[in-house]
Amino acid sequence: HVFSDPAEVEALRGNLLAWYDRCKRDLPWRALVRGDCGNWGPALLPAVWVSEIMLQQTQVATVIDYYNRWMQKWPTLQALAQASLEEVNELWAGLGYYSRGKRLQEAARKVVFELAGQMPRTAEDLQKLLPGVGRYTAGAIASISYGQATGVVDGNVIRVLCRLRCIGADSSSSAVIDRLWDMANVLVDRSRPGDFNQALMELGATVCVPKAPLCRECPVKQHCQAWRRKLFGNPPKVPDVEDCGVGDCPLCPPATEPWDSSLGVTNFPRKAAKKPPRAMRTATCVLERRGCHGAPEYLIVQRPSSGLLAGLWEFPSLPLAQDLQEEREREELADHLQAWTGRPVAGKDLRFIGEVIHIFSHIHQTYVVYSLPLDGDVTLAPALSPCRWVTEDGFHASAVSTAMKKVWRA
Ligand code: SF4
Questions:
Q1: Which domain holds residue 123?
Q2: Residue 207 to residue 59: CA distance in whole angstroms
Q3: Do 195 and 326 belong together in one domain?
Q4: CA nearest to 407, candidates 348, 361, 354
Q5: What is the pLDDT of residues 256-273, one digit of tens each?
Q6: Contact indicator for 212, 28 with CB cutoff of 8 Å
Q7: Is 86 inside a domain boundary?
Q8: Do residues 202 and 294 share a domain?
Q9: Rounded to the nearest 5 degrees, what angle is found at the Cα of 165, between the Cα atoms of 162 and 168?
Q10: Which residue of 22, 90, 156, 253 is 20 to 30 Å from 226, comparing CA positions?
Q11: Is 254 domain-assigned?
Q12: What is one cellular component GO term in this UniProt entry (predicted)?
């Protein structure tokens, strides 16, 4: 399961980089790295930092527009450090995992106000000093922006490396992840570390894809043990008895789930079964009034500054206990709404609109959506959280989550 032959490592680097030079996708953050790497100024916001944070758990196609708007608005660390959290949330709205934007801004503030505007330049310092920068992001920034010869391991790299070396143990276990980091650090090209890391990730994103990898077109197929095993049906050669002990190798597929020839190279990687997401129900109500020009306005309230969807705006909402009767749900929501309307609300006056389902990474959320038009002059009671009336356009321009946009459409 290791790359023990220096000549093979050299050949793999050369093949991968030559393919990357020919085939890499034209992505906006790559253009910026290329254009600015000669005269990189400490005040610029590293393009790769923003793109890597946005790309965590989000597809490239979705990220491009957010990335371009972000870099246009805050091209420097100083500009980002001076932005308000509200502006950050508004730009991030719809991208999900909102704490990412918040922590990116906190980190920019730290660089500007505590580190005299000097970005840390090694993976170790980046991870140690900047909030929200984990091992992967630190490695990506250090290698791509600052040329440090350090590897990276993300989901794409996990898949490629597990296939290259037939690693079939649970790829989310720390034992496997540690070995993959060691391997990435051995493989990374010493003279072009940023390009090598991007090439490995690009290979996973475009060729060595999860379901139907394009092995025949793969630039590193001659180094791939999974491909060899698919072609010849033989187990890979064991390079070192200590690395792959007979019978209980910690990196081989478990004896209970051996190689399945019908799966070919997609035998790797393997993951332990995921825990199912937690089910939650939340009642939410679209309160509507006539604004001063007669146009409808809607009440939105701000969520707490920590936890899920921190600081974002939503229609007044109330988490519900599971298995509550509909009548009881209405009553609880009606009680909750009194805090906002300053007058009694009857459960029977709430109009049921429907249920909206949104899957967060670990929560299966069902929003039970109601609406309530309010007559006459509505004065908001002083409530616990900030709140405001917005028009339809105001709603869409606010920092609201994708889940609330679904509620709006309902
Ligand atoms: Fe992935 Fe196939 Fe290339 Fe191996 S040969 S690295 S499985 S695409």
A1: 6-207
A2: 16
A3: no
A4: 354
A5: 888 888 899 999 998 877
A6: no
A7: yes
A8: no
A9: 50
A10: 22
A11: no
A12: mitochondrion
